[in-house]
Write a structure and sequence with these properties.
The complex is a heterodimer of chains A (156) and B (738).
Chain A: E1 2-6, E2 9-13, H1 21-28, E3 47-50, E4 53-56, E5 69-71, H2 76-81, H3 92-99, H4 109-122, H5 128-134, H6 144-154
Chain B: E1 9-13, E2 19-23, H1 28-38, E3 50-52, E4 58-62, H2 71-83, E5 90-94, H3 104-114, H4 131-134, H5 145-173, E6 180-183, E7 186-189, E8 194-197, H6 198-205, H7 234-238, E9 254-260, E10 268-272, H8 274-277, E11 282-288, E12 291-296, H9 299-306, E13 310-313, H10 323-336, E14 340-345, H11 348-353, E15 357-365, E16 377-383, E17 386-390, H12 396-407, E18 414-417, H13 434-443, E19 450-453, H14 456-461, E20 469-477, E21 483-491, E22 508-514, H15 529-547, H16 552-559, H17 564-577, E23 588-596, E24 599-609, E25 615-625, H18 632-651, E26 657-658, E27 661-662, E28 680-685, H19 701-715
Helix pairs in contact in B: 2-5, 3-5, 5-6, 12-13, 15-16, 15-19, 18-19
The chains are: A alpha+beta (156), B alpha+beta (738).
Chain lengths: 156, 738
């Protein structure tokens, strides 16, 4: 049995302890917003938050997140809003992604948004070098210039 | 493009008072069939594209796949603008994957541009192009959606609908149609100040005969086209709700992982699946002709169990073939044969024989994988003689037919569920069907949905690849350094004719292709032949410039006197990049230009070497002439995308063959440009007003040569083989500034 909170909801799953969180989310819970890209933590498409930290779920066994708080793209805005009923439906990062028309095919963007959200939460004004070293997600469509512009709009 | 607009406009009344107006590149009988086959829940369809409801909302059906190129929005903009619709009241929907929404204009467009491209062969009688044979198409590829479907069908349907609505309003008011105008989904009679919403006219409009030749707007009349409008697919792509093929999900779904024969073309001999079957959740081990699959109740369980399967595949004559052998074979072919004519002009052989000087440059590029972010996948649910199908595809209709043929079902028994594509780049075009075929065969063993997903490793190793090509050049000069002849021999096959041709005014040209067969499956890859050929030709023209003692920009301009559009984009890109100005120490600029898919693109690249003598691309300045920009923001994003896609290939991209199989496994050994290595990109749109050009591909071809041309100036080393990372620039020896 694995127990953790996903987007604020307690979940208990009868799965092997070594099952990667990615496949527990997608195949067991039907939370398909988190994407499979490489399976080896190279591309970042599967990035979720574990207690607010960006984690690549494809190599994260469920046993290592026992009792932790998982946030996926589906719950990002809801978790950010917390108890505030008048919070916007999207986070500032998500809104910036629309304002700067960042996604193309969009497949990597859930992971990209989760990675950038975690970065900005811990470092609201990252330098270019800090962005480059922490946002290592692959975007095959090449949305990087727009990711950079969107991040710039969110920092001072 | 000379396509009659008049015969094929159709309209039909909708239950509840709306109207549906389509531009049908087909016979009217098909519309009648639409109404009998598709009428459900009181709704009726014809062959697309615009539906106007009594509440004044307009729905536009787009018959192309959305894979990030923004085509749902761009095509809707084109229809809505001609309709004079209020964009706020426009809904965009993916047209269903039924042949009534198939797209003959696509084929007509291609036929005009290239003849029939190779990726459509088999679907089309290549020699005898007949509309009757090409209707069964709903393909998204060839940078074609806006310039063919949009510029012909969507605009015409919109204009026809507008004229029908005006006619209704004029009749109702007892005034002349010429006194009426339209704006924001209303017809207006300015003399009397009257105005009526389209929705109130739709029921009457449905009773009218469509106009024979609706008048399209001139660009100065555009209200929606030409504006940077936000894409409708983006909101769902930031909140996790956008559906991709791989996201098909149900409670009873099963999941399949596949192990393919590692050497292309070999078959499965035997399987011991007992250990896999003992694993939790595993339902079946399924033997396929060239693969074995494990089906389980969770993809990870299937994938883990697959590791325990002991599969034996037959040996093959290719078991010891490597990339070295393949390129050696190319060299032998090039030495043994003068090949077939691609282009002959003047007498290059004689010019070379009498030339004062001849230079040579032999180039090669490797196979490349598509590596779309969404690994290849396909979900099929077969029960009661019907199939439901979910997969990300550039060819919904073709996929339906393929699944039907594999499953032994009539095509009408296959229900295709559209989704967004997590990247296409050519991988999801017709004939690249290995995953589709396997997924269907696997699903036939069950009566629940089965989702087959390739691991990243399988996606990389079981692709249909951008062909490896070798290309050998010679150029002849007279005593004054003028170039007299261009001589090029390269290995085929040619997928898109003309990609090896140059726009430069060189009197004598001999361009020939020799066979370059390998056992590696190939397919279109973003920009198809241009991805290789432009690297070759735009590098060798640079070699010619340096040999002639001329600035590479100047030489191009001199040899492009008859190509003002090429000259213009070169001028714009060079000026914006500061070409010719002083650069910081250790920086250099390279330039390249290419016309492809109807657009002309010049790129200027600024490079340096890092502390480890690796190439660093700082900035790409691009000018594109795509005729006009329908959605300028989409133009820019497609150019950025095309550049980064091509830059990844130029810097890192290599699929190599070892022991008959692909050596690369996953992203670490098939590296990508990422944030840290992504250059600044500046895009300048040059609006020539010429016919619309494509956007998905044309920015990809020039980038490799632009980078290597800059590296030559920086280091004195000519890169004639990609990827760039294989080259050692440690002995950099900067050239004189050019």
């Amino acid at each position: 049995m694995a127990s953790f909170k996903v987007n604020g909801v307690e979940r208990t799953l009868d799965v092997e302890p070594e099952m990667p969180l990615l496949w527990a989310l997608r195949d067991e819970l039907g939370l398909t917003g988190t994407k499979f890209g490489c399976g080896i933590a190279s591309c970042g498409a599967c990035t979720v938050h574990v207690n607010g930290m960006a984690v690549r779920s494809c190599v994260t066994p469920v046993s290592t997140v026992e009792g932790q708080e998982i946030t996926t793209i589906e719950g990002l805005a809801m978790v950010a809003a917390g108890a505030n009923p008048s919070a916007p439906a999207l986070t500032a990062v998500q809104q910036a992604w629309i304002d700067h028309q960042v996604p193309q095919c969009g497949y990597c963007q859930a992971g990209m948004i989760m990675a950038v959200s975690a970065l900005l939460a811990s470092n609201p004004n990252p330098t270019v070098a800090e962005v480059d070293s922490s946002i290592t997600n692959v975007c095959r469509c090449g949305s990087y210039p727009r990711v950079r512009n969107a991040i710039r709009s969110l920092t001072a | 493009m000379k396509i009659s607009r008049r015969r094929f406009i159709v309209s039909t009344a909708l239950v509840g008072g709306g109207v549906l107006i389509g531009y049908a590149a087909t016979r009217p009988s098909r519309h009648r069939r639409a109404n009998t086959e598709l009428a459900q829940n009181g709704e009726r369809y014809v062959t697309s594209f615009i539906k106007i409801n009594p509440d004044n909302r307009v729905t536009i059906y787009v018959p192309h796949s959305e894979m990030g190129q923004g085509v749902h929005t761009s095509l809707s903009m084109m229809a809505a603008d001609e309709l004079d619709a209020n964009w706020e009241l426009v809904d965009i929907e993916q047209a269903p994957a039924i042949d009534l929404f198939a797209n003959g204009d696509l084929v007509k467009g291609f036929a005009k541009e290239f003849g029939v491209p190779s990726f459509l062969e088999g679907l089309i009688g290549a020699a005898a192009f007949k509309v009757a044979e090409v209707m069964n198409l709903q393909i998204t590829g060839g940078s074609s959606s806006v310039r063919y479907t949009g510029d012909v069908a969507m605009r015409t349907a919109g204009a026809a609908a507008r004229e029908m609505l005006i006619a209704c309003a004029a009749a109702r008011w007892g005034v002349s149609a010429t006194e009426c105008t339209t704006a924001l989904s209303h017809v207006q009679h300015n003399a009397s100040g009257r105005s009526i919403a389209y929705g109130e006219l739709a029921a009457d409009a449905a009773l009218l005969e469509p106009p024979e030749a609706p008048v399209l707007k001139t660009p100065d009349q555009w209200q929606i086209m030409g504006k940077a409008i936000s894409r409708n697919d983006i909101p769902a792509k930031v909140d996790g709700t956008a559906p991709y093929g791989i996201d098909a999900h149900s409670e009873d779904m099963l999941y399949a992982a596949i192990q393919f024969a590692p050497v292309f073309g070999t078959k499965l001999v035997s399987v011991d699946g007992s250990a896999a079957l003992a694993r939790r959740g595993v339902k079946r081990v399924i033997e396929l002709e060239d693969a074995v699959a494990v089906v389980a109740d969770n993809y990870w369980r299937a994938k883990e169990a697959l590791k325990l399967v002991n599969a034996v595949f037959e040996t093959s004559e290719f078991d010891n073939v490597s990339s070295v052998d393949i390129f050696a074979g190319f060299d032998r072919s090039l030495a043994a044969s003068d090949g077939d004519t691609d282009k002959e002009q003047g007498d290059a052989e004689s010019a070379m024989a009498t030339a004062a000087d001849v230079i040579e440059g032999n180039y090669r590029v490797p196979f490349l994988a598509h590596a779309a972010m969404e690994p290849m996948n396909c979900t099929v649910h077969i029960q009661n003689g019907k199939a439901d199908l979910w997969t990300s595809t550039q060819d919904a209709l073709g996929i339906k037919g393929r699944v039907a043929s594999i499953a032994g079902l009539p095509e009408t028994a296959v229900n295709f569920h559209h989704s967004y594509l997590g990247g296409g780049f050519g991988r999801r075009l017709p004939f690249n069907w290995n995953v589709i075929d396997h997924a269907t065969l696997i699903a036939m063993e069950f009566d629940v949905p089965v989702k087959t997903v390739l691991s990243r490793e399988d996606d990389m190793q079981q692709d249909y690849y951008r062909p490896a090509v070798s290309s050998n050049f010679k150029a002849a000069f007279d005593g004054a350094g003028n170039v007299l002849a261009w001589h090029n021999r390269f290995t085929g096959p040619i997928q898109v004719p003309g990609a090896s041709h140059i726009p430069y005014a060189i009197e004598n040209q001999s361009i020939r292709v020799v066979d370059g067969p390998t056992h590696v499956p190939i397919a279109a890859w973003r920009s198809v032949d241009y991805s290789q050929q432009t690297f070759f030709t735009e590098s060798f023209i640079d070699e010619i410039a340096h040999r002639a003692g001329k600035n590479p920009y100047q030489l191009r301009m001199e040899l492009l006197q008859d190509h003002p559009r090429h000259r213009k984009v070169l001028e714009v890109a060079a000026a914006a990049a500061g070409y010719g100005n002083d650069l910081p120490e250790g920086r250099a600029l390279g330039i390249a230009v290419q016309e492809s898919f109807g657009s002309i693109v010049a790129e200027v690249v600024e490079v340096s070497l890092d502390a480890n003598n690796r190439a660093v691309v700082h900035k790409v300045t691009c000018a594109i002439d795509c005729g006009r920009a329908i959605n300028p923001d989409t133009v820019e994003s497609q150019v950025e995308s095309g550049i980064i896609f091509g830059l990844t290939a130029a810097l890192y991209g290599e699929i190599s063959i070892e022991k008959g199989r692909v050596a690369q496994n996953n992203f670490p050994d098939y590296e990508m440009v990422r944030m840290a290595t992504s250059p600044e990109i500046e895009v300048h749109i040059v609006e020539s007003g010429e016919a619309l050009g494509g956007l998905g591909e044309p920015a990809t071809p020039p980038i490799a040569a632009a980078v290597t041309n800059a590296l030559y100036i920086l280091t004195g080393q000519r890169v004639r083989e990609l990827p760039i990372r294989k080259h050692d620039f440690a002995r950099a020896n900067s050239l004189a500034k050019v």
